[in-house]
Amino acid sequence: MSGKLVVAVILALQVTASVCELPQPSTELVDKYTDLKDSVYKLLAYAGIRAKEALEPLAQHLPQSQAAKEYVEELQGKPHVQSVVKVATGAAGELAPLVDKVRMAGLGLYETYARPYVGTYLDQGVTAIKDFVKNVLPPEGQ
């Protein structure tokens, strides 16, 4: 049921986007968004590495289950699981351009209608969060 709802919403968004002309974001906003997105991804990757380093000593003391390993290997060998993975990968590839269009439309709508009112507050909030995260989880090499 939820899959049908997602498809219906996507189709409704496409129809709505094709009927009306949506404003395009400025390159300055797109660059700012891309920079923020990249820094969040780097932070998440670094936090994941740090968490893995912290949990590795604990994982060495846990008994490893041979049955769990065999079950995972058995699942990976099943053709149904492989076909689901192929379909999910293909769907992700097909949806990537649509996601980019929706992202650009959202940025354009934000810049046109919301940024004049909340842009400075959002920028101050993002800056404060960046400073806090740098203090709690310093970047690599520090």
Largest sheet: none
**Which whole number gives the mean pLDDT?**
81
Number of helices: 4
Alpha-beta content class = mainly alpha
Instruction: Tell how many strands the DSSP assignment holds.
Output: 0
Rg of Cα set: 22 Å
Strand content: under 5%
Oligomer: single chain
The poorly predicted ranges are none
Order of helices and strands: HHHH
Distance between the termini: 49 Å
| Global shape | flat
What is the helix content?
Answer: over 70%
3D architecture notes:
- By secondary structure, this protein is mainly alpha-helical.
- It is about 85% helix and about 0% strand.
- It has four helices and no strands.
- The mean pLDDT is about 80.
Reconstruct the topology from this structure:
Elements (H helix, E strand, L loop, with lengths): L1 H18 L7 H35 L4 H12 L1 H58 L6
Overview features:
142 residues; mainly alpha; 4 helices; 0% strand; flat
Summarize the structure.
The chain is an all-alpha fold and 142 residues long. The protein has helices at 2-19, 27-61, 66-77, 79-136.
